[in-house]
Amino acid sequence: MTDINENDTVSTLDTALSIVHVIESNGALTLSEIATELEISTSTVHRHLNTLRSHGYLVREGTEYRLGMPFLTLGGRVQTNKQVFDLAKQKVDQLAAETGERVQFVVEENGLRYYLYTQSGENAVQTDASIGKSGPLHVSASSKAILAELPEARVDEIIEEHGLSASTEQTITDREELFEELDTIRESGVAYNNEEATPGLRAVGAAVCDPDGFPVGGLSISGPANRFKDDLYREKLPNLVLAAVNELELKLAYEVN
Prior knowledge:
The chain folds into 2 domains: 6-68, Orthogonal Bundle (Arc Repressor Mutant, subunit A), CATH 1.10.10; 75-256, 2-Layer Sandwich (Beta-Lactamase), CATH 3.30.450. Strands 6-5-4-9-8-7 form a 6-stranded antiparallel sheet. The protein has a 3-stranded antiparallel sheet with strand order 1-3-2. With 257 residues, the chain is α+β, with helices and mostly antiparallel strands. The chain contains 9 helices and 9 strands. Helix 5 (85-99) packs antiparallel against helix 9 and helix 6 (141-148) packs across helix 8 (175-188). 48% of the residues lie in helices and 21% in strands.
């Protein structure tokens, strides 16, 4: 949860970051397209673009602007600085090879989920779950598992800040229904995503906790609903995820500390 008063922020930096985010969302944009999208003057946009270009954070190709490579440097540093990253990467790669499906490890920050690392097996379907992508916590298996390990007051804070918007017709959008599911996840240790984030896609996940019981991330295996069903969906994959999480938690407790 962010506790920053908008009156304490710098408006010019807000504008620069808005420009970065709109370019990130669209891939590349012209000056006029950015100004139209953000509803600010082209002269203001032009000054910010020149400043960001001077530091290498934007690259101009013809009339369009795209993000520069320094963002990759920053993102890589954020990713690998996470204490759990090396351990999670090994386990994600192993599960992807073993199952042939897509495996991901997500973390929670400021009430959102972020993909820290993902890997695709030989039968995996392609999704938009790229490294660094953010999204709401209540729609995915791994992030619902994280929510289940957080105090109720913290979950309420997240709901108040980010809401419970629907990504699909299957998304849980009611607080009481969500808390009932979190109770179930807490009891079994396993969370399910039944086409709640993406139509036709299911996932099985579980939270990874540090020795103090705090969730440092969530591990999940995802795949098409036509394959993820019956015993595979309810028994085999959950057992694989729980075994992987148990190993990660042991390594966190005895190898990292």
